Predict the 3D structure of the following.
Amino acid sequence: MEKTTLFDKIWDSHVVKSVPAGPDVFFIDKHFIHEVTSPVAFLNLEKRGIGVKYPHRTIATPDHNVPTVDQDQTIKDKLSRMQVEKLRENCKKYGIELHDLGSAHHGIVHVIGPELGVTQPGMTIVCGDSHTSTHGAFGAIAFGIGTSEVEMVLATQCIMQSKPKKMRISVEGELGNGVTSKDIILYIISKISAAGATGYFVEYAGSAIRNLSMEARMTICNMSIEMGARGGLIAPDDTTFNYLKGKQYAPAGEEWNQAVAHWKTLRTDDGATFDKEYHYDAADIEPMITYGTNPGMGIKVVGSIPTTEGMEGSNKTSYLKSLDYMGFAPGESVKGKQVDYVFVGSCTNGRIEDIRSVAEFVKGKRKADNITAWIVPGSREVEKQAYEEGLVKILEDAGFELRQPGCSACLAMNDDKIPSGKLAVSTSNRNFEGRQGPGARTMLASPLTVAAVAVTGMITDPREVFPN
Amino acid sequence: MAYDKFTVLRDTAVPLPTENVDTDQIIPARFLKATEREGFGDNLFRDWRYDVEGNPKKDFVLNDTTYFGKILVAGKNFGSGSSREHAVWAIYDYGFRCVVSSFFADIFKNNCLNIGVLPVTVSAEFADKLFAAITADPKTEIEISLPEQKITLLATGESESFDINEYKKDNMQNGFDDIDYLLNMSSEIDAFAASR
């Protein structure tokens, strides 16, 4: 028997047809949609006079542009309101399940999919959002698509895709104190660069990955796109099955047993080959933070910004342009720099474990006076849990402002914008120029590091503030 | 939807050598609040093109009238980040029909092909030649021939071939899109779906 990878097994079983000298006609099991990248797709369906082929395979929620205050009221921003209303209208018209604002499972699309048990091993999952790679944590092939492809999925449940190359990234060993899955992925991206995995689909493997919780795995897979990869996945195991068991859309009874038996076959065969492999030692990873304007520009919190040695031409110009935007100089250390905002949230780190880790460390402390601290749960379910576990009280006592679920300041489509020139340390996924608001400067880090920054008011290694 | 046919394009070009240009720069998120596809060109590269008061920034290439044309020659790793197709709509709406770079982000490239903007990947050396030639003479013309899969710097005759799969090439030349193809194989898809 040919030795195949987990990725091959799932991909190959979803090819309806291979076009000669062209892409594969690729079948999609589950499709998530939101208010920003779907309206034009629906509009085009109308223009073509066709409908949605398999409405039960699509699930919708408004997340990108929604306000994170007063969600029970009409959305004030006219354009945002129109997009959300369009989504409601389209879902109603075509019979698509909608988790609307205020409903029990409203939230960021990549948070609610797993929560509902919609995301399952072996599936193909797409969404008009590049962080769809999050769902790969369950051993699914999940990736972001453009609006033309959203239209294709709605109309035919297929897209035309050329099979990416395969990469495996193995992280072995034990993580040090204060080091989280966010640090692992920021470390990997800093090594591979923001474009280093372009054209590849990544499998994350190794003991350090296997030892992670489902939520921590989602953080890793979520940021696969930040090194250019189409997506990233992790072989399903007992951690995956335990997470899914009993979830609303997970199989039950005898179907559950059958599903688990199948899911257990979803692994890379010993001896299967990848187009590229990387190996890292977990012990080398320390708390990480970004200093530039793409997620590949990351260093240890206690490290210094690389100098321009060895750079030339547009590479050097682009590097200096990036540092200029951030107000940083080559060679300087970031530790001790004064920060204005912290943001805990997004599809990367807006889950209950993230909020727990922040709450645990700020308990009994107070945020620094110069810090504005926003905490935005990834979903209503996360919000509910945070209240039930008493985390909200702890965070509010520490001076954090709790907002309602949504993508919020991760991309600043709504009013949650970091003011121009201000420096934010954020648990989200992108530090692009203006990502969190025009002129805003963003440094990406783990929830733990963000908690340390909130308390001290400056860039701080969490191990110094929270010794255990 | 069916789009413009692309065969041979001969025009001047706009150079943007900055590397790692992400789709948030091409079209910032706050301008994505539309329910139709037109009109994004006004906000193409919004925060590089205009200051906070909305005045054009003189040092940005789109505000430099020396440079114009339907070809955008961009730096390495162009179109990274968000999958927003709005980025390509903005590029198209502004008037570009072809983007040349030594390296494209995946989803961006797919999005280009899906709406009929031709992404041409060239070697880093050829990209440097293009930047140098355009900067030396903004009126320099570039020819992109899809049938021949060839890009030529007309002033010197230097050229390079580029890759595109036959299926996409055929689509671009005829203005077909993937949905036309997929709708034609509806029964095969139904059979596949039923087997799952």
